Amino acid sequence: MAARGNHVRQRGKGSWQIIIERPACPATGKRNRIYKTVSGTKKEAEKIMRQMMNDIENDVYIKNTDITIEAYLFEWHEIYIVPFKSPTTTATYLYNIESYLVPRFGKMLLQNLSTKDIQKWINDLGVSSPLRKRPLTPKTIRNLYMNLNAALKRAVLDGLIKKNPGETAVLPKCVKYKADVYSADELQLLFEAAKGSELEIGIMLLVCLGIRRGELMALRWSDFDFDKKLVNIDKSVVRVRQGEAVTKAPKSDAGTRTIDMPDVLVSFLQGEKLEYYKRRLKHGGDYHDDDLVICQPNGKPYDVDYYTHKFKQFLKSNGLKTIRLHDLRHSHATYMLKLGVSVKAMQQRMGHSTFSTTMDVYSHVLEDMGREAADTLNAGLQGIVAGSNPSPKAFGLSKV
Length: 400
Known about the structure:
Layout: E1 4-12, E2 15-22, E3 32-39, H1 42-57, H2 69-81, H3 87-105, H4 115-125, H5 138-157, H6 184-194, H7 200-209, H8 213-218, E4 224-225, E5 230-233, E6 236-241, E7 244-248, E8 257-260, H9 263-283, H10 304-317, H11 327-338, H12 343-350, H13 355-361, H14 363-388
Antiparallel strand pairs: 1-2, 2-3, 4-5, 5-8, 6-7
Helix pairs in contact: 2-3, 6-7, 7-9, 7-11, 12-13
């Protein structure tokens, strides 16, 4: 039913109140008015009023609410995230809300949030993080934006806002990271430097198995079958917020896998398990026995970020090339591919859900291998070609 008795009145300098009279309640006869205060000129206020009237006519009008972004985000998290997402995803969303969204937008009204507000926030994150005072990576910025955007999409569906102001925001371009892997010679130097150190077992496992950091930190001695030379990967430690980590199942079915171990790793781990028993006896009742393979001397787990920091310091103090801890996984895959292991076998070993993922991640290695294969073929053919002087037809070529 059409709105009537509509007008604009001045509330102050540059401030106007829009009043739209809707049909009275049939049961009570009570007046039904919609009010909205806007800034600008009277013409601008009248334009807004006409848009409101059009929305009412088409039953798409969003009634003013005084819900703040802070209140809405926590409500959205409780209703739409907690019951349906994994504990790690739930905790990550909450961390992002508390650390990045509420400090910036919390006190704003949900209906007042604009694309420009979101764009300025995205741009500022690329200059300096409010937590660490340094720029966030494009990937991290995208993850934070996706959290906010998911909440705003829900707000549209729930009739709290007419359109999602985050839809048209411009995100920084993600640059694909190219891993800096160790060559065979560099791996040898790494093993020599790590021998007898606290990091030796972690380095051996990462290089020999190609597992992820979280999978490494979740490994327990019960996951190994030394007789069959197998290790079962079925969990991962994930850091969800400052000082807090949880153990969870892999994201995909492919992440749960059994990996064949090389003999050199089996022999090494058997010795390390004996050391584990010795440490348990030494610490007695003070030993925190969670059966962890990677742990502090008293059995307590490492903070995953601290372990990464230890690796970085280890490389520096031993004068080794600086790479990420995760690059040991890439070093493993690169070395295996160069030894002739098939890409399909690598897909299963690495826990990739699709063949294309493996191909995409290691395409540069395969390209290099293609060049090496061509050079090897060339070296072998040179003598044959020179001796027989074949026609171009022998190689399926036409005369030019």
